[in-house]
Amino acid sequence: MTNRLLGQARDLIFFLGLSALLALQTHDALAGQNWGSLPPSSQEFLADMRNDWGTLTDTEKRKWLKVAERYREAPPEKQEKMRQRIASWAKLSPLERKQARENFKTLREKEIEHRAGNWQDYQTLDEEQRDRLKDEQKQKRMQTQTNPKLPPGAAAYRR
After folding, report:
1. CB neighbourhood size of 143 (10 A)
2. Which of 27, 47, 76, 141 has its CA at a distance of 20 to 30 angstroms from the CA of residue 113?
3. What gap in Å lies between CA 159 and CA 149, rounded to an integer?
4. Is residue 10 a part of any domain in this protein?
5. For the chain, what is the domain count?
6. pLDDT tens-place string over residues 125-146
């Protein structure tokens, strides 16, 4: 019995030590995302954020690194748009950034409420009206696909 308890205690200590080591390495890896350790492609894309990088939280850094990942995979026209947006964001003061986040959150909540309202309205339509609405949406999607000036799906968002 004593050997069994010693074995369990040893296993527990090993597990706790290993867990602590992994937690420290993970934290260090995230917190250690100093500007110099970023890949050159991320540094190039995030160049406008360089001066603020040291003041960002780990969560903010992770989000920006995900944006940089999406940037590398995006088509050239989308990359240009992303560069313009990051440059605009970098010019904002911390107070303006906070206000922008709050505005985005408010708009997102209104959008969700609007969608819920649209769904309720759709539920009240009879079958003929639903079919007509489906046909209209299908035509809008087809217009988008045949008009190269519009991005995919743009016609569906026109009102």
Report:
1. 14
2. 141
3. 18
4. no
5. 2
6. 899 998 998 898 888 877 766 6
